[in-house]
Specification:
Layout: E1 9-11, H1 23-29, H2 43-54, E2 74-80, E3 83-88, E4 93-98, H3 103-109, H4 114-118, E5 121-127, H5 130-136, H6 140-161, E6 165-166, H7 174-181, E7 188-196
Antiparallel strand pairs: 1-4, 2-3, 2-5, 3-4, 5-7, 6-7
C-alpha cells in the first residue's frame, strides 16, 4: 500500500459516504477483473473498500452488510506486500498480524491462480460460525455464508465505483489458506477477493 505506516496498528482515513458514481452505474460497471497493474492501493482506497465490506454505519455497531441477529460472524483480512492485516471494523483500523508478503503462498493455496499472486491486495473474508450457532444452531453456517455474499458484493461494487478491478475467488484449499495467513483457529476462510488497478 502506498505510504503504508510500519506500525502494528494502522489508523485508516475516514471513508467517504458520498461517491461520484450512482449505485446503478456501479452495478453496470462491475465485472470480474483478473489482470492487475503493480500499482499499490493507497490508504484512502483501502479504507473505502474495507468500510464497504464491513464498516460500521450505526452507533450501536450496525454494519454495511446485513447480519443475522446482528451477531456479525465475519472477520476481514487484507494481504499486501507489506504483510497480512486484520480489519477492526469498530475502530476502522488495521492490525498487522504478519510482516511477510504471503501472496505467493496464498496463490498456491488458491490452486495456483495468478490473479491472487499478482494483485497488489487480496481481501480475505472469514467467518466465526459459533457466533451465530449460539442463537441459530445448525443454520449458522448458512447465515454466515449469506453474509459473506453481502459483504463481497458491497466490496465489488465499491471497487467498481473507485475504478478498480476485483474478482471473487472461491477455489482454494481452506486449510492451506488458514495456515498461510496464520488465522485464528475458528476463523474459516470463505472468500478471496484480489483487488487492484486494472492493467
Amino acid at each position: 500500500m502506498t505510504g503504508l505506516q510500519t506500525s502494528y496498528v494502522i489508523k485508516l482515513p475516514l471513508p467517504s459516504q458520498k461517491g461520484k458514481m450512482t449505485l446503478e452505474e456501479a452495478l453496470k460497471k462491475r465485472e470480474s477483473i483478473r489482470d492487475f497493474s503493480s500499482k499499490s492501493l493507497n490508504e484512502d482506497e483501502l479504507s473505502q473498500l474495507l468500510w464497504a465490506a464491513q464498516g460500521t454505519t450505526r452507533n450501536w455497531g450496525g454494519r454495511t452488510a446485513p447480519s443475522a441477529g446482528a451477531l456479525f460472524p465475519l472477520e476481514i483480512y487484507v494481504v499486501l506486500k507489506e504483510g497480512v492485516f486484520h480489519y477492526a471494523s469498530k475502530d476502522h483500523h488495521l492490525l498487522r498480524i504478519a510482516d511477510q508478503d504471503r501472496r505467493n503462498a496464498l496463490a498456491s493455496a488458491a490452486l495456483g491462480q495468478d490473479c491472487v499472486r499478482e494483485a497488489p491486495s487480496v481481501i480475505v473474508i472469514t467467518a466465526v460460525y459459533e457466533r451465530l450457532a449460539r442463537k441459530y444452531g445448525t443454520r449458522a453456517e448458512r447465515y454466515a455464508k449469506m453474509e459473506a455474499g453481502h459483504a463481497g458484493q458491497n466490496l465489488l461494487l465499491q471497487a467498481a465505483s473507485l475504478g478498480l478491478g476485483a474478482v471473487p475467488v472461491g477455489a482454494f484449499d481452506d486449510e492451506r489458506v488458514h495456515r498461510v495467513l496464520n488465522l485464528p483457529e475458528k476463523h474459516a476462510p470463505l472468500y478471496l477477493i484480489p483487488l487492484g488497478h486494472k492493467r
